[in-house]
Specification:
The chain has 334 residues and is α/β, with parallel strands linked by helices. It has 2 domains: 189 residues, 3-Layer(aba) Sandwich (Isopropylmalate Dehydrogenase), CATH 3.40.718; 131 residues, Isopropylmalate Dehydrogenase (3-Layer(aba) Sandwich). It is built from 11 helices and 12 strands. The strands form 2 sheets. A 10-stranded mixed β-sheet has the order 2-1-3-12-11-4-5-10-8-9, with helices on both faces. A two-stranded antiparallel sheet has the order 6-7. Helix 1 packs parallel to helix 11. The longest helix is centred in the middle third of the chain and has 17 residues. The two termini are 27 Å apart. The chain binds 1,4-dihydronicotinamide adenine dinucleotide and magnesium ion (MG). The site of magnesium ion (MG) has 2 residues, from helix 8.
């Protein structure tokens, strides 16, 4: 029975391999400082799990995610695609959210970048088994359906409404891909009419790749198809500098998973050198997904403060603190 007046949630925790284990442990310690009751249930997945159980993603781990309010995922090693790609497919996580935000004392190229890339995760060019060999080459199909694109575009506008953003930018190549991206663009402006308080604009993907470098402050929310979102989100990561800082979310109708963009980093695993911020910012995205915006702001401010002070920083940011020292500093600033 929940006798406190805090909100409570059941969270599936999958630390995985390598630094996934370390950044997850550090993150849970910080979350303990928030005014929320989390009930954690740990699940196995990844290389270690495969060694032990013969399979990288056991059914009980999938069930655990299904039966939780949200999932925190650390990183997997060589089995990453067997784990994370399968979870996205099984749970129909159609939206991939990749924030691009600059923080102080990092390798960010700009000071005031803060936008969200909302990437369609289920179709476009990236559908399994949609490539075929032909006599003198190979063909890939690019699938754009009304249902999936309406869903992702509506998600982007709802995200803008809920997060005080004023504008959504659609990114496409409708001048060349007239049928597929023509449809995407048409649906975008249809749905935009349902959101009169949010500005709508659209750019070609090649131009956007340049604007992200010349004028990144222009963007608030970008919505785009699968391949373009994949490429632009890595460009975004480059703009704000460093894998140790980049979180992400995978959102479905009734399941959501939050994970750092980095992998298991075998070169530093077990040495407490990993920057925990990417995992912490992933947890912050989870808090916002759960509607806990006030606690998410507290966490964000604490991270910002530690970065501004520039003392308790991990090696990737030029400091000498270890994973847990940095996490403790963040917790103390909550
Ligand atoms: P990686 O992200 O693990 O590491 C790339 C480089 O960034 C390494 O030098 C690493 O030390 C550094 N790095 C990454 N995260 C860091 C952090 N939090 N703090 C400080 N430094 C950090 O990518 P890599 O090396 O390509 O892959 C290693 C393994 O991870 C592979 O087995 C790969 O399959 C897996 N992987 C898993 C992913 C996932 O679980 N979603 C995503 C990417 C890779
Ligand atoms: Mg990618």
């Amino acid at each position: 029975m929940n006798i406190s007046n805090k909100n409570s949630y059941k969270i599936a925790v999958i630390p995985g391999d390598g630094i996934g284990v370390e950044v997850m442990e550090a993150t849970i310690k910080v979350l303990d400082g928030l005014d929320i009751d989390f009930e954690y249930e740990y699940g196995l997945a990844g290389d270690k799990c495969k060694e032990k159980k013969g399979i990288a993603l056991p059914k009980e781990t999938l069930d655990l995610i299904k039966n939780s309010d949200a999932c925190l995922f650390g990183a997997a090693g060589e089995t990453a695609s067997d784990v994370i790609v399968r979870i996205r497919q099984e749970m129909k996580m159609f939206a991939n959210l990749r924030p691009v935000k600059s923080y102080p004392n990092t390798n960010a190229l700009f000071d005031n970048v803060d936008f969200m890339i909302v990437r369609e995760n289920t179709e476009g060019l990236y559908i399994a088994n949609q490539e075929e060999l032909i006599d003198d080459g190979a063909i890939a199909k690019r699938i754009i359906t009304k249902e999936a694109e309406e869903r992702i575009i509506r998600y982007a506008f709802d995200y803008a409404m809920q997060n005080n953003k004023n504008k959504v930018t659609a990114v496409h190549k409708a001048n060349v891909l007239k049928k597929t991206d023509g449809l995407f663009k048409e649906i975008f402006y249809e749905i935009a009419e349902e959101y009169p308080d949010i500005d709508a604009e659209d750019f070609y993907v090649d131009a956007t790749a340049m604007y992200l470098i010349t004028n990144p402050e222009n963007f608030e929310v970008i919505v785009t198809t699968n391949l373009f979102g994949d490429i632009l989100s890595d460009e975004g990561a480059g703009i704000v500098g460093g894998l140790g800082l980049i979180p992400s979310a995978n959102i479905g109708e009734d399941a959501a998973l939050f994970e750092p963009v980095h992998g298991s980093a075998p070169d530093i695993a077990g040495e407490k050198k990993a920057n925990p911020i990417a995992m912490l910012l992933s947890a912050e995205m989870m808090l916002r997904y759960l509607g806990e915006n006030k606690e998410a702001d507290r966490l964000d401010n604490a991270i910002l403060k530690v970065l501004e002070e520039g003392v308790e920083l991990t090696g990737d940011l030029g400091g000498s603190a270890n994973t847990f020292e940095m996490a403790r500093a963040i917790k103390n600033n909550l």
